[in-house]
Write a structure and sequence with these properties.
The chain has strands spanning 9-13, 22-24, 33-36, 40-45, 54-59, 67-72, 85-94, 97-105, 110-112, 116-117, 123-128, 135-144, 150-161, 173-177, 213-214, 224-227, 231-234, 239-242, 250-252, 257-259, 265-272, 279-284, 295-299, 305-310, 316-320, 330-338, 343-348, 351-357, 363-365. By secondary structure, the chain is mainly β.
Length: 369
């Protein structure tokens, strides 16, 4: 019996960052300064085929103080208004491993995760930074929560980022065949053209998971500001934003547009709600009468969704779906506002639900009430 050679597979984690302020994925110990000691500690790069990460090892005494190293970035004069978050990918090993990540500003104020139980597999954690500060130190820590025990925190990278990675999800992996190599191995990552790139006026994935920004993946880079403290959660595909119904909670995108009589606009999203909920899902344009915006996609008390459009001449078209969407499940809703054909339409879960026709002229969207 003969056995064919089997490939030795390696998993590769891929992230693409847009103009980071600072990135370290090597963690050469000579570039980091120890500032906190335990009974014994160490911080060095793995420096082998297992991966280009660094291991911070710690052995505790009778008190679990942990250890820490810091990187001095004061010479770079990095503003937290430009680079509002620190993203670190890490995992823990050993006995009750805990990590801690912090950023100290030049005015000695500190943003800090506090001691946190480390994941057993590599995960990225994000620390949101206080705005209008200048970064002095990035601090990384390790400790065992058990007195007298040893633990390790493996740090894969740390990055001060302008915005979340363009490829943000930790599950983005590819497999590379490294068999039969004699000296070096290589692979190619090809970024395929996104069919929505250049087509969408705004595109929010809500994958950030932390912070007060929702980043726009369209060419306009119309990043939204979270107002009223909506919370991050798990959505239909990745992340989502959760709203309690408070009128102050929203994402302010600053989107402005004039929908011409020859044009149209489509609003598409995933929504999950429960019976009896009401309120605006998407609203755009200054109110013209009755406190209503020029465009609204809103939830009805009878569990349906409605598209409402009022043009600059105060002509009004609205349509309420026949399909309920407030049943505790995720539903895909697409609303078409179409002055070119004098109509508004709704699609629910990929199916045409219906429309209303009538006069609909130019709709100028400027600001939000």
């Amino acid at each position: 019996m003969s056995i064919s050679p089997q490939p030795q597979w390696a998993r590769v984690h891929v992230e693409v960052h847009e103009q980071p302020g600072w990135l370290d994925d090597c963690f050469r110990s000579t570039l980091w300064t120890k500032f906190q000691s335990a009974a014994s500690e160490g911080f060095e790069n793995a420096n082998d085929i297992s991966g280009d990460y660094a291991t911070m090892s710690v052995t505790e005494g009778g008190t679990t103080n942990g250890c820490g190293w810091r990187k001095d970035l004061s010479a770079a004069a990095l503003s937290t208004s430009t680079y509002p978050s620190l993203r670190v990918r890490l995992r823990g090993r050993g006995t009750t491993p805990q990590y801690r990540v912090a950023v100290e500003a030049t005015d000695t104020t500190v943003d800090d995760t506090g001691w946190t139980n480390a994941p057993t597999e590599f995960e990225a954690v994000t620390l949101q930074l206080t705005a209008a500060k200048t970064v002095k130190y990035v601090r990384l820590y390790a400790r065992s929560f058990t007195a007298g025990a040893s633990a390790q925190i493996d740090y894969d990278y740390a990055v001060l980022q302008r915005s979340p990675p363009l490829i943000p999800a930790e599950h983005y992996e590819t497999e590379v065949d490294l068999r039969h190599t004699s000296a070096s191995s290589g692979f190619r990552v090809r970024c395929w053209h996104d069919p929505l790139h250049g087509v969408t006026a705004r595109r929010y994935r809500f994958e950030e998971g932390a912070g007060v920004k929702a980043y726009d993946l369209s060419d306009d880079a119309g990043h939204g500001s979270l107002l009223g403290s909506p919370t991050w959660g798990t959505g239909k595909h990745g992340g989502c934003l959760q709203f309690t119904g408070a009128s102050s909670q929203r994402v302010d995108t600053g989107y402005t547009k004039a929908i011409a009589t020859t044009g149209a606009l489509t609003i598409a999203l995933w929504v999950k709600g429960y019976s009896g909920a009401t309120g605006v899902i998407v609203g755009s344009g200054k109110a013209v009468t009755g406190g209503w915006n020029r465009l609204q996609l809103n939830l009805q008390s009878t569990d349906e969704v409605r598209i409402y459009a009022k043009d600059d001449a105060l002509n009004l078209l609205q349509y309420t779906s026949t399909t309920p969407v407030l049943d505790g499940a995720w539903h895909h809703v697409a609303a078409v506002v179409d002055p070119a054909n004098d109509r508004v339409q709704l699609y629910v879960d990929g199916e045409y639900d219906g429309q209303t026709t009538g006069t609909l002229g130019t709709i100028t969207l400027t600001g939000y009430d």
